[in-house]
């Protein structure tokens, strides 16, 4: 099942344009993520694909058929919601087969399908319980089972894990991804969580105020973000975006630090993007500053160092550090892993192309 979004536009009655020319192709069997901050338009796209809201312009094509004017029930897709949307007075089994029963599917087929999906989501023992007696994770599995039982080849998921605690969320991420791969279904998944986007998606669409910032695989977005918005969206702690000047084949940071480079660009102002893990603490490092923040993680440490002129640098190392606030920390940037952006934030060079000696 391939889904194509062509020039989707959406304005609500108040005239606010919440989607501006959305174009995308979602290939059969892909786990496709829509990610962005609250209000960026993720749910609006999902609802437009499902047919829950009309769009002002553009087309939704499913398997080469224009479905823009079709009601949701004729689009061959099912949906999993954040709040589970289960019926509290029905048992798990009744909730799961509700749609099949409504379509008068034969009883024995209903039972067969029910057993199959209960087995898939590991809920056999709970089939006679009411949703109120289940944990959040189990409720979300019921809602997943209900989506799977319909045999729809496309499942739309709107923040399905956001009501779960961190540990359960991590488990469910794996389960949903494994199920999707096992069944070969196409999933379009909305989240505001960069970790979900990175860990689950084959392709990720990054949205900002109703516009697409970039579409790519998780590692493409991480290693070659189209702009500083995308660079800043992925990674924790977030990337350092340092104002640098290019002069005499060197980047100058704060007029104090100089980094030689062989990148061939005009002299002037740029933004150097350095991920916190691409900085090495070293006794005689080329850069130094005062420690202003330290976060011991057990398996590593995150620190922040003030290098003056209102610029601080986030550093992530995989060791435990014995440092006190105010200590001077000296470090080197692995400049061959840095990203170079124009002053307006568009990517100019990635990785090796910025390669240099500090
Ligand atoms: N029925 C509506 N009438 C007017 N504006 C709306 C309506 N529904 C959504 N919006 C606006 O559309 C924009 C996009 O909303 P949408 O729900 O798609 O964002 P989102 O990225 O899914 O956000 P969230 O993560 O908070 O759900 C927001 O600015 C929102 O206020």
Helices and strands, with pairings:
Elements: E1 3-11, E2 17-26, E3 31-36, H1 42-50, E4 57-62, E5 65-66, E6 77-80, H2 92-102, H3 107-120, H4 136-149, E7 154-158, H5 166-183, E8 186-191, H6 194-200, E9 203-208, E10 211-216, H7 218-223, H8 228-233, E11 240-247, E12 250-253, E13 257-260, E14 268-274, E15 279-281, E16 287-296, E17 301-306, E18 312-317, E19 328-333, E20 339-341, E21 347-349
Parallel strand pairs: 3-8, 3-9, 6-7, 7-8
Antiparallel strand pairs: 1-2, 1-4, 4-5, 9-10, 11-12, 11-14, 12-13, 14-20, 15-19, 16-17, 16-19, 17-18, 20-21
The structure holds adenosine-5'-triphosphate.
Keywords: ATP-binding, Cell membrane, Membrane, Nucleotide-binding, Translocase, Transport
InterPro entries: AAA+_ATPase, ABC_transporter-like_ATP-bd, ABC_transporter-like_CS, ABC_transpr_MalK/UgpC-like, Mo/tungstate-bd_C_term_dom, NA-bd_OB-fold, P-loop_NTPase, Transp-assoc_OB_typ2
Protein name: ABC transporter ATP-binding protein
């Amino acid at each position: 099942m391939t889904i194509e979004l062509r020039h989707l536009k959406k304005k609500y009655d108040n005239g606010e344009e919440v989607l501006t020319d959305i174009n995308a192709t979602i290939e059969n069997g892909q786990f496709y993520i829509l990610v962005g901050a609250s209000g960026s338009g993720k749910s609006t796209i999902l609802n437009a694909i499902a047919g829950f809201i009309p769009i002002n312009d553009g087309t939704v094509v499913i398997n080469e058929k224009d479905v823009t004017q079709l009601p949701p029930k004729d689009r061959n897709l099912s949906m999993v919601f954040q709040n589970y949307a289960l019926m509290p007075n029905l048992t798990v089994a009744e909730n799961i087969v509700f749609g099949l029963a409504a379509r008068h599917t034969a009883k024995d087929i209903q039972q067969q399908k029910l057993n199959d999906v209960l087995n898939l989501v590991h809920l056999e023992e709970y089939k006679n319980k009411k949703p109120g007696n289940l944990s959040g994770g189990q409720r979300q599995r019921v809602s997943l089972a209900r989506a799977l039982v319909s045999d729809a080849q496309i499942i739309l998921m709107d923040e399905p894990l956001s009501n779960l605690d961190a540990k359960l969320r991590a488990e469910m991420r794996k389960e949903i991804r494994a199920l999707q791969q096992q069944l070969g279904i196409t999933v379009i998944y909305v989240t505001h969580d960069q970790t979900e986007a990175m860990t689950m998606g084959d392709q990720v669409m990054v949205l900002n105020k109703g516009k697409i910032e970039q579409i790519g695989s998780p590692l493409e977005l991480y290693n070659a973000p189209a702009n500083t918005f995308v660079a800043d969206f992925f990674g924790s702690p977030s990337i350092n975006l340092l104002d640098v000047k290019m002069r005499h084949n060197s980047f100058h940071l704060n007029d104090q630090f100089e980094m030689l480079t062989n990148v061939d660009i005009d002299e002037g102002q740029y933004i150097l993007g350095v991920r916190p893990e691409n900085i090495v603490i070293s006794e005689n490092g080329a850069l130094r500053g005062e420690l202003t923040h330290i976060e011991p993680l057990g398996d590593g440490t995150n620190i922040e160092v003030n290098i003056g002129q209102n610029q601080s640098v986030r550093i992530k190392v995989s060791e435990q550090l014995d440092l006190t606030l105010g200590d001077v920390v000296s470090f080197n940037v692995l400049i061959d892993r840095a990203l170079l952006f124009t002053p307006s934030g568009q990517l100019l060079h990635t990785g090796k192309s910025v390669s240099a000696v500090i």
